[in-house]
From TrEMBL:
It comes from Prunus yedoensis var. nudiflora. It is a single-pass type IV membrane protein. GO terms for cellular component: endomembrane system; membrane. This is Syntaxin 6/10/61 N-terminal domain-containing protein. CDD domains: SNARE_NTD_STX6-like.
Length: 129
């Protein structure tokens, strides 16, 4: 495990991968917070503070989701460029590790997008009393 971490840390694209991972983590955190808040809505007259919080977290999630997608696309371009440029430090295992990372982040993004579609998070403010 330690050698795997060392391989990543010595990777020239490590800093870019860290930025992508941070964005994906933030997206996941806001998504889970939003789902939790949605589970707290009870009855026909939910708490106004809760509804406002849901509204802001929906906006935050939209922003973090798009940021994660954009940063992943940027990272993919950097990986493709590095592979084509034939930099000597980029071997097959490095390219494979990058592609594995890209797939994992893409799955995380798709999971959030899919669950957003399946979750009724419309406009919580319209149900206020």
């Amino acid at each position: 495990m330690a050698s795997s971490l060392h391989q990543w840390e010595s990777d020239p694209l490590f800093a870019a991968a860290e930025v992508v991972q941070d964005s994906a983590d933030r997206m996941e955190s806001v998504f889970r917070l939003l789902l939790h808040e949605l589970s707290l809505i009870q009855g026909d007259c939910p708490d106004l503070k809760l509804l406002v919080s849901i509204y802001y977290h929906k906006r935050d999630l939209a922003t973090t989701l798009e940021t994660a997608k954009w940063q992943l696309e940027d990272f993919e371009r950097a990986v493709s460029f590095s592979a084509v440029a034939g930099k000597p430090q980029l071997r097959e295992d490095v390219i494979s590790r990058h592609n594995q990372f890209i797939r994992a982040i893409r799955e995380q993004i798709l999971y959030v997008e899919k669950n957003l579609e399946g979750t009724s998070i419309g406009d919580p403010m319209r149900n206020t009393c």
